[in-house]
Specification:
The protein has 131 residues and is α/β, with parallel strands linked by helices. The protein has one domain: 3-Layer(aba) Sandwich (Rossmann fold), CATH 3.40.50.1380. Helices cover 47% and strands 15% of the residues. The protein is built from seven helices and five strands; from the N terminus they run βααβαβαβαβαα. A five-stranded parallel sheet has the order 3-2-1-4-5, with helices on both faces. The longest helix has 13 residues. The chain is globular and about 40 Å long. The relative contact order is 0.19.
């Protein structure tokens, strides 16, 4: 499965900890991330991640294009709804694309854990058929 990992600035440490905790499951999949998030995850997990540009430099649009091409099977976007930064791109485009293309999306730690455990159980195998 192809998993996209994105995180707002205030959630990057949380994303690192999430990836450390679920490294075993993540290592069995292809990982994609915006540039800064991907680099930070690689530093603490040694996972191989295909890194796009930083989110505010077009990385979110690059991941959006992968979603439109049906190349992403799961999106984990740990967002910070309380303290948006002016340089952070609007995540609504990613959310809309996930809805249009029927891509499972987690926007907080609770839903991310549910999806990653579902992935490990094989509950997302329907994505292979859907492609």
């Amino acid at each position: 499965m192809n998993i996209a990992l994105l995180a707002h600035d205030n959630r990057k440490k949380l994303m690192q900890n999430f990836c450390i905790a679920y490294r075993g499951i993540l290592s069995k999949n292809s990982l994609y991330a915006t540039g800064t998030t991907g680099r930070l995850i690689e530093e603490v997990t040694n996972l191989t991640i295909h890194k796009f540009l930083a989110g505010h430099l077009g990385g979110e649009q690059q991941i959006g294009a992968e979603i439109e091409a049906n190349s992403i099977d799961l999106v984990i976007f740990l967002r910070d709804p309380l303290t948006p930064k002016s340089h952070e791109a609007d995540p609504n485009n990613i959310f809309r694309l996930c809805d249009i293309h029927n891509i499972p999306l987690a926007t907080n730690l609770a839903s991310a854990e549910l999806l990653i455990k579902s992935l490990d159980r094989g509950d997302l195998e329907w994505r292979e058929i859907y492609k």
